[in-house]
């Protein structure tokens, strides 16, 4: 099995696509006005309109209702990312912080309230874990 994508359902595809293009530097591929994908070597972030929900099943998803998923984005330098996001992100959950598991993390919310964790491994163990995963 292979995880193909993570999908966010939103009421405003254009706004969420613009946000993710700005924070990642990746241009989304718009497959349809109601659907876009931002592709990376390690995975794809899909953004779909809430208008697609009836196709999935009655009440299968609800935009802006997530409070349990975090999108983790590996970056070279969390502190530089924090500076670069000042004009892009409206809600910072914290400033760059060293976590007990060996990462320096910055948590923000996207325009729909979804949590993003920009992180850089700072411990040798954490760094080798992500280096090895990237090589696989």
UniProtKB/TrEMBL annotation:
Pfam families: Glyoxalase. InterPro entries: Glyas_Bleomycin-R_OHBP_Dase, Glyas_Fos-R_dOase_dom, VOC_core. Residues 2-121 form the VOC domain. It comes from the Bacteria. This is Catechol 2,3-dioxygenase-like lactoylglutathione lyase family enzyme.
